Amino acid sequence: MSEEQKQSYFRIRTNPLRIRQAASMNLNGYWWIYFIGIFVYYFFSDILINIVSRYFPSGYMVIPTSNLPEEIQKSVAMPQIPVVLFFYVLLMSGAFELGRAVYSLSALRNRLVIPRLVFEGFSVYFRATAICVIRYLLTALGFMCFFFPGIVVNYAYSQAYYLLAEDEKRGVIDCLRESRRMMVGNKLTLFRLDLTYFFLVFASYLPSYILVGNGTVSVDGINGMLTFYLLQIPYFMAMSSFCMGRTVFYELLRFGSFKNFKYRGEDFFREIGSL
Distances in Å between the alpha carbon of 132 and those of 91, 95, 116, 252? Predict the structure, then answer.
């Protein structure tokens, strides 16, 4: 293991609202270009397969809920999952998650906002996919044992793609192990950061949900689906901010504070850190 891989990580004490503010301010001047890349990511990881799966034979997988507590079974919807959707997510999500990490790190560190970087995850496809499969399995096991462990596991391995994005030679287990190590004492902070985006994401998604729910917009045909996703553009904008917020969080894990960031844009974050 290299010296870089042996580095110590910081316990983040920065207020999550401050992290969100810094992430938003850093996007000034190139926010729209960054949004295009994030939209491309969601198009291939979400929109495309949801449209295509409607035209495939309706074979479904059912997620078992019998092992979950009765209260959770009542409160958590466990829908049937189209087989084509399941395998697409399993085989493609890892590469696109890694691509999003590469793209976001490039935008944050170097102000190089190149949407095609979203596809960079395919250069190490098998490692990215292996991380995806193992993470999904561990998270699913956590949810089946009890709901809370699934959340903990999900956050513990949340940095694995960033680690692989930084060093494509890293092994799969090493990325997962390092992610778990760097998230010790930081899982709650990341959860609190996610919560700061909750109302923004919820409010941006709500109009399309209401219009579909009351029948104003139908998603039965291709035109209806396209209309639905056009209405969801504010949601994808909100998720762009969310993605950059999580990327800034990763950098804080490495550097400890804004004023220690060492790359183009350093002066900006030093100003933020001194406020």
Answer: 8, 9, 21, 24
Query: Rounded to whole angstroms, what are the CA distances from 61 to 30, 58, 79, 101, 187?
Result: 42, 10, 9, 30, 31
Bridge partners for 82 per DSSP? 60
As a whole number of angstroms, the distance between CA 234 and CA 237 comes to: 5
What does residue 263 show for φ and ψ, rounded to 5 degrees?
-170, 180
At 60 the three-state DSSP class reads strand
* Residue 262 or residue 98, greater confidence: 98
d(CA 202, CA 66): 29
Q: Where exactly are the structural domains of the chain?
A: 16-274
143, 76 contact by CB (below 8 A):
no
Backbone angles phi, psi at 197, to 5 degrees: -95, -5
Element containing residue 234 per DSSP (H, E):
helix 233-255
Q: Which of 72-76, 88-92, 186-190, 227-231 is modeled with the greatest confidence?
A: 186-190
- Spatial distance between the Cα atoms of 255 and 168, rounded to a whole number of angstroms: 21
Phi, psi of 81 (to 5 degrees): -115, 125
Q: How many degrees, rounded to 5, is the angle at CA 12 between CA 10 and CA 16?
A: 155
Lookup: tokens for 85: 């959707």
Of 153-157, 226-230, 241-245, the range with the lowest mean pLDDT is: 226-230
Closest C-alpha among 198, 187, 182, 179 to residue 242: 198
Q: What is the mean pLDDT of residues 206-211?
A: 86
Using CA atoms, how far apart are residues 105 and 166, in angstroms rounded to an integer?
A: 9
SS3 61: strand
Q: What is the pLDDT of residue 101?
A: 97
| Contact (Cβ atoms closer than 8 angstroms) between residue 121 and residue 97 | yes
Residue 97 to residues 53, 119, 230, Cα–Cα distance (Å): 21, 9, 23
* pTM of this structure: 0.85
